[in-house]
Fold these 2 entries.
Entry 1:
Amino acid sequence: MYACCASKTYGLLTGILDKMHRWIATNNDYRFDEERQWFAEYHTFQGMDIERDAIVKVYIPIMLKESARNVQLCKAKTI
C-alpha cells in the first residue's frame, strides 16, 4: 500500500515529501513501511511546458498499524 500525493513540478520534492511524512506521522491508522522505497512518477502531456506544467506523483510505502488492523479484523468478524 502507498500514500500518494500529486503536485505540479515546481522546485524540489522536499516540500511534498515533508507534507506526506507529517501526514503519516500524525495518522492513527498507518505507519511507514521501511522495507520498501518511495518513488515518484512524472507525467507530461504533448504541447505542454515540461518544466512548468508537468505533474509529479510521489508514492511513499505505508502499512496499517497493528491497532488499526485489529479494529478492522474485529469489524469484519461482527459483520
Entry 2:
Amino acid sequence: MKKNSEVPKTDKSDFEQKTRVLLEEIHHQVKTVAEQYSDIVEQMSEIKSDVKDLKNDMAIVKPVLEMHTTYLREIKSELGSVKMVVVNSSHEMNDHEKRIKKVEEKVFS
C-alpha cells in the first residue's frame, strides 16, 4: 500500500500542470484588475478636474445670480408702483369720460 505523502509521478505532473494553469489564470485576472484600476484612477482625476472647474464657475455665477435676484425684487417693487399709477389713471379717465358725456349732453340737447 502507498503512503499518503507519496504521490505518483503522473499525478504530480498533472497537479503541477493544473497549478501552472491556475497561476496563469490568476495572473491574467490580476493584470485585468490592475488595468481597470488604472483606468478608474485616470477617470477620477478627470472628474476631480471637472468638479474644480464647476466650483470655479459657480463662484462666478453665484454673485451674478444674487445681483439679478436683487434687481428683480426692485423691478417687482417698481412694477407695483406703476400698476397703481395705471389703475389710478384708468379711474381718472373714466371720470373724465363721464364728465365729457354730461357736457356733450347739455351742449347738444
